[in-house]
Amino acid sequence: MDETLLENLLHWLRIPSISTGGGDPAEIERAAQFVVDRVREAGGEGDLVRIGAGNPIAVCELRAQREDAPTVLLYGHYDVQSPEPLGDWDSPPFEPEIRDGRLYARGASDDKGNVIPVLHAACELARAGELPVHVRVVIEGEEEVGGASFSAWTKADTRGADCAIVFDSAMEDEQTPAICLGLRGIVAALVEVRTQPRELHSGLYGGSVLNAAHVLHKAVGRLLPDDLGRVRDELREGVADPSAAERASWAALRPGEAVLEEVGATPLHPGAGAEYRVRNGAEPSAELNWFEAGEARTIVPATARAYVTVRLAPGQRSERIREVVEGLLREQLPQGAQMTIGWHLGDPALFPPEEPAIRIAAAAIERATGMAPVFVRSGGSIPAVADLAAKGIPVIVSGFALAQDRIHAPNESYRLASLELGARAGRELLLALADLPRG
Amino acid sequence: MDETLLENLLHWLRIPSISTGGGDPAEIERAAQFVVDRVREAGGEGDLVRIGAGNPIAVCELRAQREDAPTVLLYGHYDVQSPEPLGDWDSPPFEPEIRDGRLYARGASDDKGNVIPVLHAACELARAGELPVHVRVVIEGEEEVGGASFSAWTKADTRGADCAIVFDSAMEDEQTPAICLGLRGIVAALVEVRTQPRELHSGLYGGSVLNAAHVLHKAVGRLLPDDLGRVRDELREGVADPSAAERASWAALRPGEAVLEEVGATPLHPGAGAEYRVRNGAEPSAELNWFEAGEARTIVPATARAYVTVRLAPGQRSERIREVVEGLLREQLPQGAQMTIGWHLGDPALFPPEEPAIRIAAAAIERATGMAPVFVRSGGSIPAVADLAAKGIPVIVSGFALAQDRIHAPNESYRLASLELGARAGRELLLALADLPRG
């Protein structure tokens, strides 16, 4: 283990850079400044960039020896989720502790521990005069709150990069590294329905007046999937079928039944586990995440609120599906009912395995870890990756997290072995990307 | 105004007999004992009856001069809802104050002020040796919390009565008294669905695992009415059509549109107001009163809860409709989802206008107030009335409350004019019921 890497990580983890509420803006800034300081110490340059009232982004650069080298953008986030409930931690969340080969702290896996090995490798290579690519380090502080700063920065950035590295993802299992080729997009709707100025007595008025819970129940019902979990055709617009080769590669992965069992999930139906890789990687899905209306007594609710999310498969466009979702929600709104909707959108992203950056990355990770990475897709959404993909920048989404790391939960941790794998993979990756064709 | 009546009411209103939480059991008992004391002072007898851990029921009797007189049961409730939010009261809720011909206090209208004139009339008649009917005074303390004590007492009571008076109801308008012939029954279901041991990430698992909110959404959807507010046929089983005469009498009442407008309601559809009397008095209805699941973020909820109430029209049986409701809720429950249901049932009640007690009451109220009472039905449920009706006791449901009394809300009040009308009506009623045929 590289002692400097571990010391740097411990230092970074001690900064409580909480973005999800209850955090201190000064600590947010310290965690961002830490990145700038590391890069400057290694001979690079950089500074904090602020977009509006958002948390600062550390935007830095380590230049390659060769001026015409390709440019690699290293993305990560220094912000963490709040550590509550504090009583459930075996050691304080911002006093990192090593026990049995694991480093316990909030952010240990998500994302400080996952991203710092690549940052460290870039700094060490630069210091040694061996950095073969220009590395633009862009580490943001609003990932956990879906903030808009990074998206705005990417859109405004005219320099771009020849590829990006995002280490915010997981291994397939404790031995097998993975590269995530696809991420789903998202259309999230926060819907509110209002029907009356106030609640009414359900015996005296129910059945004659508009019940906000009924109106919203019906509206969100238009978005929910059938009993097999399949969403209606309008919500499937644009879905790109995965190639036969990619489907075949999923068959070699851990069975979907095992993925569900690992988290104690109840399958949607008997066949849902077997279809997991296709469903989660290449199909849209829709969930009612939240519904809240009325009280458990005899009233007619006057307001009702829900949060519904539609995940988009690669090929779909979030702005188009937003229109479809809004149409379905408003389609049969009765006279006298008001509906307001707040939106959050993210496009899907998909990188072909033949993409030069992906090919180079796969070979580099295999050299570093001794195992060829498997190609996976994730059903989740990483808006930053979609933002980069939208600019035509291929993104290497990888990392050494594991399901056991308990990210976002008490006793979050990261294996020292994962840190080591990350350091080796980060170094090989930066060296190998020198061969990347320049865009 | 009878000064003793007013003083007695003020005394009773000063006792904070709150049953809905935050109340003091000693005050509950004082309010019940107040009834016993009034009856004893008038030469009657009585005591507090306790059923299990329930609030005491004041069970008393004033005997008529003539031993073979009919027996009248006077029902009411001394418990009140908690007065929160206290800051919204213009005067303290348990320090009654008279302003502009209205008496302001919690319980002023519901039910202390509404019931005490009849109690007072019975005591005064007994004191004067002029009481022509035996009066069983049964005033309970769990009406506001749907407690089971009165129901258990009624079922166990072998003496019964020839008719009952329940003054817990309202006038048709400020001038017109009303007798409520029908009350709807209720089947209330508190439903909980559980699908997973814990919440899951909606991107990683949504679409492959059971979402508790989806399961409950679908289940309660089976109970909800169509866009015209009509419930499915299975829930209409047993509905008794009102007679042509009764329908015709509703046409003479205030238009349903005005009833809805009075509370600022948004009609279910353009024709809902015109149909109000039939819908509310003679049709079943169903409401989703409460739905709660998940959080407004990207999770798959593991539990979801709802409160659904079906109001039953006269003719329907609550135990039978409970079976239908349970069948609908459980009908398509997917494998792996658990559903638990808590029930609260109440039968509907209906008294024909030709019923001797009703005919006598209508004439007596007209003599007392100068206005013939109109016959109405209420869409609400008074379980005590259903309990009495189930024993074959005809119930005169009336009273002098008004929609403006703000029952259950801050600044509850009762008109002094209503108190006066109640006293006159109570006296005439007791005198006239001497003619009641004995059961």
From TrEMBL, chains A, B:
Any single GO BP term: proteolysis
Protein name from the UniProt record: Unannotated protein
Pfam annotation, one family: M20_dimer
Organism: freshwater metagenome
Keywords: Hydrolase, Metal-binding, Protease
Gene Ontology molecular function, alphabetical: metal ion binding; peptidase activity
Keyword Glycoprotein: no
Domain Peptidase M20 dimerisation: 182-336
InterPro entries xref list: Bact_exopeptidase_dim_dom (IPR036264), Cyt/Met_Dipeptidase (IPR051458), Peptidase_M20 (IPR002933), Peptidase_M20_dimer (IPR011650)
Classification via Gene3D superfamilies: 3.30.70.360, Zn peptidases
